[in-house]
User: What shape does this take?
Amino acid sequence: MRVLIVDKLRLFCHTLKAVLQKESDISVIGYAVNAEEALHQAQHADLVLVNAAVDDDERALQLVRDLIRFRPSLKVLVLGVGEDTDAIIRHVEAGAAGYISREDSVERMLEKVRAAQDDQAMVSPRIAAQLMNRLAELTSLRGTLWATPDIQMRRFNELTPREQEVLGLLGKGLTNQEIAEQLYIEHGTVKNHVHRILKKLNASNRHEAAAAYMLRLKQEHTAAALAA
Assistant: This one.
């Protein structure tokens, strides 16, 4: 199993590499201290260990999304999270195959690494229950927003390029002000875009619109994996 380590501290990367290299079935191909390095090296890896604090929480989430988009078959495990249900679910929704908490032992970490490689997930009963609840919510949301795949496609196609751009930033959890700053437009203009997005997607709030965006991404990732 070829493993890539992503952490902003080189010392941590070296330490974790020394631990993993002792395992006969694991080969550490390298480490990255930022997203750019991670994406460059990910093409040679089977599994990537990403520290949740590689940059900041949102950038770590975006890195997970980018890695999966880059290689849908890639396994990504998030390191250093606590038993924070919301944080873990956000990473799983971004595409992570699992997580390694701050309380896990080395032996537990190795078990989770091997489980992920075998398309299995090791989570606590509490997290498993929350993931099931979240799956039920998304299933209900999909039925509410899109009655059929044709309706789904039509509603997304109705979005202008700028609205799609704003929706993508909503999916990353950005506020209207943050979106305005990133796109160099007025705050009021962002509000107008969000209003039109909600209307076109038949979403009742920005959270539903963001969930719709993430669901759409997951469908695209699945289609890409099947076509590969």
About this structure: DSSP finds eleven helices and five strands in the chain. The chain has two domains: 2-123, 131-227. Residues 10 and 33 are 7 Å apart (CA to CA). The domain at 131-227 is CATH 3.40.50.2300 (Rossmann fold).
